[in-house]
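Forum: Protein Structure Q&A
Topic: Joint prediction for protein chains with partners

I've read a bunch of threads here and the consensus seems to be that you should model interacting components together rather than docking separate models afterwards. I'd like to see that in practice. Below is the full input, 259 residues plus whatever partners are listed. Could one of the regulars post the assembled result?
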Amino acid sequence: MSRFATKVAVVTGAGAGIGRAVAQQLAAEGAHVAVLDRDEPGAAQTAESVRAAGGTARPFVVDVTSPTQVAEAMNQVSNEFGGIDIVVNNAGVVRYGSVPEFSIEDWNLVIGTNLTGCFLTAKYAIPALRRRGGGAIVNTASAQAFASQPDVAAYSASKGAVVAMTRTLAIDHAADNIRVNCICPGSVETPMLRYGAEYFDDGDPAVTMQQWGRQHPIGRLIQPEDVARLVTFLVSDDAAVITGAPYFVDGGLLARLGV
Ligand SMILES: NC(=O)c1ccc[n+]([C@@H]2O[C@H](COP(=O)([O-])OP(=O)(O)OC[C@H]3O[C@@H](n4cnc5c(N)ncnc54)[C@H](O)[C@@H]3O)[C@@H](O)[C@H]2O)c1
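Posted by a regular:
Agreed with the consensus. Here's the joint model:
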């Protein structure tokens, strides 16, 4: 169980949900993990849970929408851990509303976090990956890059753009021995999904979430650990020839016609 021994991994948005599970699985297989999140208690809890399980992790309070904070964090991680091999761009937010009612502030928040955040992390991490002779990046898109709920124009636009940017990053950096892929989860049981259930809910959000789970052909919600297993595969040497593409972890959601 040491696929990532000697590797340094940066996981953004690792203070909760999917990012926390990714940080924990990477550390369980030997990676030293930089836990980046704008939420200080969340990042600290993730790092503590890794250390309690015998792994190595350190929290960094970083807002991925800030060029200066991301640049500074990548320098700090490189200096303190000796380099960077793996980047998981997971930080994300969702806001709901039809376009006429949607504020420009919420548009900028969603695009700034989900898309510009991936751009900034790649921009400031790739020089460090190059210095190590290569590495792997996973960007987090969504099933909603391909099929959408109502009221998610900004979110689905950001995720579609992540899929497109992933292609270009993969092509531009293949010669650097850097692989870049993205993942497209269905409904994953996390605080973000609960936020969505509260928006659409007309009763109990927990019931709404379970209904969403049953809409997936596998009949249940996806767990953060299910997503983390795909991420750890994509950043491992087992995926040595895999680059430039989106991978679904959606319980068959997009395979079924809604008729
Ligand atoms: N939960 C789902 O059903 C689902 C489905 C498809 C894709 N995704 C994507 O997976 C990723 C993780 O989602 P989740 O469900 O675990 O979300 P979550 O809200 O449960 O956790 C997201 C984490 O990102 C952090 N974060 C948000 N904005 C940030 C910023 N500007 N800088 C740094 N950290 C920031 C939050 O503090 C939080 O700790 C997101 O990109 C999301 O869009 C989630």
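Residues 12-13, 15-19, 37-39, 42, 62-65, 90-93, 113-114, 117, 140, 142, 185, 187-188, 190-193 surround nicotinamide-adenine-dinucleotide (CB under 6 Å).
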